[in-house]
Amino acid sequence: MKTNESLLNERNQHIPQGPFNTHPIFVEKAEGAIITDVEGKKYIDFAGGIGANNVGHCDKKVLKSIQDQIEKYIHPCFHVVMYEPYVELAKRLNELTPGHFPKKTMFVNSGAEGVENAIKISRHATGRPAIITFEDAFHGRTLLALSLTSKMKPYKFGFGPYAPEIYRMPYAYCYRCAFGLEYPSCEIDCAYFLKEFFHTHISAENVAGLIVEPVLGEGGFVIPPKEYFRILHTICKENGIVFIADEVQTGFGRTAKMFAVEHYEVEPDLIVMAKSIAGGLPLSAVTGKAELMDHPQSGGLGGTFAGNPVACSAALTVLDQFKNLSLLSKAEKIGKKVLEKFREFQERYPVVGDVRGLGAMVGMELVVDRKTKEPATALTKRLINLCREKGLLMISAGTHSNIIRSLMPLVITNNQLDEGLRIIGEVLDEISPP
Ligand code: PLP
User: Fold this and answer.
1) Ranges in the chain, pLDDT < 70
2) What pLDDT was estimated at residue 377?
3) For site-directed labelling of 184, which of 102, 123, 305, 407 has its Cα 20 to 30 A away?
4) How remote is the CA of residue 140 from the centroid of ligand 1, in Å?
5) In a mutational test of the pocket of ligand 1, which residue from 113, 133, 141, 275 has the highest number of ligand atoms less than 8 Å from its CB?
6) Quick one: pLDDT at residue 239?
7) Model-level pTM?
8) How much distance in Å is there from the Cα of 429 to the middle of ligand 1?
9) What per-residue confidence (pLDDT) applies to 434?
10) What is the pLDDT of residue 1?
11) CATH 3.90.1150.10 region(s) of the chain?
12) Does domain 4-55+326-431 have CATH number 3.90.1150.10?
């Protein structure tokens, strides 16, 4: 029988280090919120394939729709002959996404590819070159998406030169406010700063789009104040700039609404989705104002595997399962419990500097010292490793990898959730006694 160790040796022999791995284990089976490794050890999954398994690993109904689809056809390619699941899914997303205007949807394969297409569409529609992005943002690893991404090591370092015409603003990271202010007395200066940015960095008339995550994902589960996006959106609108919401990590119910922008009551011009959209199959979508989406001419957008029918069929069932399993209210309950527990940890352990949450998207930021807020990067890594040894899989987030994030499948049972949180507490006791 192959062990984790023997497979790791083979992995190291045949696969470069660039494609990273958080945990040195190999999966045999995954179901719901449980992953079993090749040695038969079971883990509670708080990582969810980096947020791609909101409906749970191997949901039975999703599996059935995949099986039904592969028995009919797998890849005729939408650009050669068309098929219904692509059209049906586009229709459903046009209805589901926020925005009281006619919408259209196109599909590609990954979050990064979705981001690239949203930028292409906004440039084509406006005839302008520049894009505004944010500090601590993550938009993917392809060249344009990586150019929009903020974190240097390991994401950007050594991979330049980057795409031109990208301008970066501070994000509303209240715990580490770039302006040294405090909410609410700050009066959301960081959002109004966009007006000044047009004078100091890039003229508004040259900006095609502003791309922003409604909650920073890789950047550390940072949740801006309620007013933030409405201000940014209004300024974009006044200046003919396409407002693009990157909902790749926040989307599909993670924040207890289907899309996180719904909490902020803004209607983005374009929304990018991926990750949990297709129950673990590679698929991403760009949904947006029909007048923008229709701008590029035929052949300007697409890709060989874009909108693969198996992934589209899985996604249709994912949407059904959100209703059948009441996953939005489950996300709400999960988030409440995790937030409460993380807040208890914050009271008990000085290493917990900040706790924040929106629905089931909850983050706990670890610091060496609460005054200096120096990121506790090494300790976060240790916490994650010790949790794994006790049967809990987690991943970190943040530019300094010092934030614990909750991306468990939303079908996790109460017992599994309680046990996972108990393990985190036990490890915090060990590594950072109160
Ligand atoms: N955008 C956001 C907000 C993400 O969190 C990610 C991935 O983590 C991406 C884009 C890139 O998605 P992918 O890894 O599927 O290319």
Assistant:
1) none
2) 98
3) 407
4) 5
5) 275
6) 98
7) 0.98
8) 33
9) 81
10) 80
11) 4-55+326-431
12) yes
Q: Where in the chain is the domain with CATH 3.40.640.10?
A: 63-324
CATH class of the domain defined by 63-324? alpha beta
Size of the chain in residues: 434
| pLDDT at position 244 | 99
Ligand 1, atom 7, lies closest to the CA of: 140
